[in-house]
Amino acid sequence: MRRVLSLCAMAVLMAAAAVAGSAKARIPFAFTAGNVALEAGDYNVEPLGNTGIFALTHGDHRILVLTNPLGASLKDSSQLVFVRQDSGYALSEIRMANGGAAGTLPTKKSSSYQVAVVLR
């Protein structure tokens, strides 16, 4: 019975991720997401339902990013928002288009300079 419940839970999570959709981004600079340093390159961004958790995939590497959910995004395009800090760029917001998930990450507020990367 537990195995059946586990399989059902996995199916629900996979279905939620499929419904929410994913987007691709080319990030031209190295950055941090939380405490993880990431290199410049092509990323796939996928919300895991409305949990505030996003998966960032770059090549064979995948990290899960826990955000403070903002509710549904009202933006027409999906975006990653970065803030410039003394040590480089830090991911501060993830917004999926047209009512998709959105969330913020804690960052040092040492700079008001922001960069938005539009996802495709």
Number of domains: 1
Q: What is the terminal-to-terminal distance?
A: 41 Å
What structural category arises from helix and sheet content?
A: alpha+beta
Q: What string gives the helices and strands in order? A: HEEEEEEEEEEE
On the 0 to 100 scale, the average pLDDT is 77
- Percent of residues in helices comes to 10-25%
Indicate the radius of gyration in whole angstroms. Answer: 15 Å
Helix tally? 1
Largest sheet data? 7 strands, mixed
Task: State the low-pLDDT regions, or none.
Answer: 1-20
Backbone shape:
globular
What is the number of E strands? 11
Task: Report strand %.
Answer: over 45%
Explain this structure.
The protein is α+β, with helices and mostly antiparallel strands and 120 residues long. The chain has one domain (2-118). It is 16% helix and 49% strand. It has 1 helix and 11 strands; from the N terminus they run αβββββββββββ. The chain has one helix at residues 2-20; strands spanning 23-27, 31-33, 36-38, 41-47, 53-58, 61-66, 68-72, 79-85, 88-95, 101-104, 114-118. Strands 2, 3, 7, 8, 9, 10 and 11 form a 7-stranded mixed sheet that branches. A 4-stranded antiparallel sheet has the order 1-4-5-6, with no helix packed on it. Strand 2 and strand 3 form a beta hairpin. The longest helix is centred in the first third of the chain and has 19 residues, at 2-20. The termini are far apart. Residues 1-20 have low confidence and may be disordered.
